[in-house]
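User: Quick one: structure for sequence A, then sequence B.

Assistant: Sequence A:
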Amino acid sequence: MTVGRRIAIITSDVLTATMAGPAIRAVNVAAVLAAEGHDVTLVSTSTCEIERAEFRCRRFGWDELQAGVAEAEILIVQGFVTRDAPWLLRSEQILVIDLYDPMQFEQLEQTAELPRLARTAALDLTTRIFNDQLVRGDFFLCASEQQRHLWLGQLAAMGRINPANYDRDATLESLLAICPFGLAEEPPARTGPGIRGVAGIGEHDKVLLWAGGVYNWFDPLTLIRAVQQVSHQHADVRLFFLGMKHPNPGVPQMQMAWDARELSDSLGLTDRHVFFNEGWVPYDERANFLLDADAGVSTHLMHVETSFSFRTRILDYLWAGLPIVSTGGDSFGELVATAELGVRVEAGDVAGLADAISRVLYDPEFAATAAANAVAMRERFTWPVALAPLVRFCAEAKRAADADGDLRRLARQPVIPTSALGRQLMRASTLRHEGGLGLVAGRTLARLRRVFGS
């Protein structure tokens, strides 16, 4: 029987009725671990407006966080949390790092419009944050086999593939485990209205659902052009974008979202064949939208982000038993093809995408087979199954085998930039990491005094 441990799960995402992927994952990690008998506290450093009977939900600001989780034996963190709470890296608590979202690849697209220096600085900071986490973490989570290969390589570069960790477990699964995003065990049930009944979408129209946000690494433009082609033969085709505004105010609207609206408007499709939900559907209401759809779609561009992505929206399509149209190149695109869940298409292929849409919406036999296969597949991705390695770790959690070992790896530094400006930016990043913006400002003021006199 599991001996309950005190566990704190920390996210910087908002815990509200309208939640995005990081918050959804944190909530479900908390629920699964609480069901195992652990004493769980879920913490947002941003906003917390939810309550759960099985675990505590709290909001701690950055200045409150260390005291707020001081009693926890195990800390589970995600994203950039350690940037604003660097004390986590010095803590003696067992530290689990959730690496399910390799954001460095997303940022290559997200920062594409920035000047080169600013773009490079953003990527350097993200890489350093991940490297610091990889040096300190006791257990790491990723979402797929492809991601595991990525993070094993980075762990090796940071000195973590060493005799101590290898001798404890030659597979290194006790150091880095695959815990994909999950879905609810219960099938979706309607609780209210969804897509149908919206102006322009009738009860008998064929609805293709884009179940998520529109980000720069996705490709809604090819999809919109394909829907235009389909509409020439099928006047009842409807494409519905579920969320155009991210619920976290810290996430800016992406250029691709703007481009999608502009293209749809220019083709005369908006509110006729293409519809944009201006906000973000509450997490507990998304089933109503999924149940109103006839098929789900996910299209993306082909770049390095694709190889390591894990398209969480496709899980909702499995949950609802929807036939799927997806671009290939990522783990789910391959699954769509091999498990006959729908149609896999090539990136940027308008005609091929139009044919795929027509097949999942207007070929009843094909659609029924794909839907049945989706229903059969969803058990594989329920949250308890997806998080089983984390459950096993928490049952007997301990520090990594090399926690008290070769401290030389903690002293490793990035390559020193050759330019004076690069060295100054690196120094400022180091000071902010060690002491926050106050330390940066203090050191800058002291230097100015030395140069110009007090």
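Sequence B:
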Amino acid sequence: MLLRIERPLLIWSFAVLLLFAGGLAACSSAPDEDGEATTEEAAEGESAEDDSEADAASADEGEEEEEEKPKRRERSVSVTATLAKRSPLVVPVIAEGVVRARHSASINFELAGRIASVHVQEGQRVRRGQALATLDNREYLVASEEARANTLDALGKLAVEENDLGEPSAGADALRDQIAELERMERRGEITRDERRAREMDLGVEAVRDGAFRRELLEVRSGLAASRAAQQRADLNLERTILRAPFAGVVSGLTLNSGERVQIGETLCTVIDDVDIEADIGVLESDLRALELGRPVLVYIPALDLTVPAAVDVISPSIDPDSRTCQVLVRLRSEDGKIKPGMFVRSSIAGEVHPDKLVVPREAILTRDGRPLLFRVEDGRAKWVYVELGLRNDHAVEIARVVQGGPIEAGTPVVVDNHLTLTHDAKVKVRRTEPLEDPWAEFDLEITP
């Protein structure tokens, strides 16, 4: 019985203890939560104050940096300028062609034989009359001596018969006068050529019968005339054994050597005059109306980047039916030999000349949005000016009128380089001012009516 009473009491006692323990835990945890909340709020407050102080400090530092940082200066663009001007504008005729030698000769052998010596080399410059090669001349020396001996023999025979000559007859002079009169009659159309020849034959026979030409007949009979002709022929052949330069120039195409045998007409080399040269250019028939002899020409040689002033020397009287061009020759001189035959040339022939045009260099013109413009310099600033272009050549272009942006007058500086990315009102520094190039200024040109 006692055991039955004690078990429920123990259970209730244990339950009471648990409730009491729970109450104590609740009481102890409530103050802790309030304390933690207070601590977190305090921490958040301190953090906010710190952030506001940091922002204020950053703002102060930024203001200090802005005060300390200097303002950025505007940079200027360095350019070259040229002054616009009013002057005559030449519209040239453009034609292309090649350089050729005015004098070029193929040196050929006039006799057959063996080459005894070649006196020049390929590319050597020679003077007029200089020996280029010599054939073996022994055979021709013998022939010359033989002809001389025959001449002396004939002179001896003539001396023996000299007493038979008598006084010279006046018939020879009369015959010459009669023959001259017959030639004049033929030119006037009074007699034909055959009639003149027949009358000359009759007059000659009659003069011989009268004693004219006695000495000439005696020379023929003695063999003197034939021997003299043979000697002249031998001397001519001996001279032909030496090949000489027909004019000063340069040896080209030399392929033969000493000891080789050659035939009549075989070529030794070619002599080219590379000083007196000419540009052979073709001008379109549509451009011929502005062309005349003596017209100034600027011959540009791209291989040498060289421009040579010259004049029109020859205008062909005919037109090539295939190219529809007219041959024009412009004579040049190449003292140093740099301009060589075969070089390509581009020629500008002074065509129409238009007076008093406002012109600027071609380099000054740009195109933006399909519209031509240029930059003029005003108070250290680049000002764009849209323009309408007129006549032009390789160096200058006419300003027909200003479309937008301000005036362009003679003396206005315009930018000619470093302006591809230039903007309106950009600050510029003119490092130099160059004159407008005008290669036609040295010529005395007539204004086109």
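The chain is about 35% helix and 35% strand. Helices lie at 2-68, 138-160, 171-188, 193-209, 214-222, 224-240.

User: Thanks, that's what I needed.
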